[in-house]
Design goal:
- This protein is an alpha+beta fold.
- It has a single domain, classed as Alpha-Beta Plaits, CATH 3.30.70.
- Helices cover 27% and strands 37% of the residues.
- The chain is built from three helices and six strands, in the order βααββββαβ.
- The strands form two sheets. Strands 2-5-1-6 form a four-stranded antiparallel sheet.
- A hairpin with a 2-residue loop joins strand 3 and strand 4.
């Protein structure tokens, strides 16, 4: 079964990416996780994302495009990246999600993908 793992980080974690003395530890933790999950052979795709300040959101209301800078909602955590993995069941997906460096501070959403048509 395929699952998407969506990684959410706090504003502090986004700041740590390149504006902080903790940058090396931040990227070191992510590199170790990416190396580990990639070596497992379960990754089917994924990417890290730039910070939420680079986002543009679109809604169509009454046939008109409404475009705004930033994500849809102000939140304590923002989407930082994702993997699509193929594992036996939700328990295996949860085990990989629990290893993500953002899990203790932000969070990881696990969602099954739609079946291929």
């Amino acid at each position: 079964m395929q699952y998407a793992l969506f990684f959410y980080e706090t504003e502090m974690q986004f700041t740590t990416r390149d504006h902080n003395a903790e940058t090396e530890a931040y990227w070191g933790a992510w590199k170790a996780y990416v190396d580990d999950i990639s070596a497992s052979g379960i990754v089917r795709g994924g990417e890290g994302l730039l910070g939420p300040e680079t986002a543009t959101s679109l809604r169509i209301r009454d046939g008109q495009n409404q475009v705004q800078d930033g994500p849809f909602a102000d939140a304590k955590e923002q989407l930082a990246g994702f993997f699509v993995i193929e594992v036996a069941d939700i328990d295996a997906a949860l085990a990989w999600a629990a290893k993500a460096p953002c899990a203790p501070f932000g969070g990881v959403e696990i969602r099954p993908t739609l079946p291929q048509m």
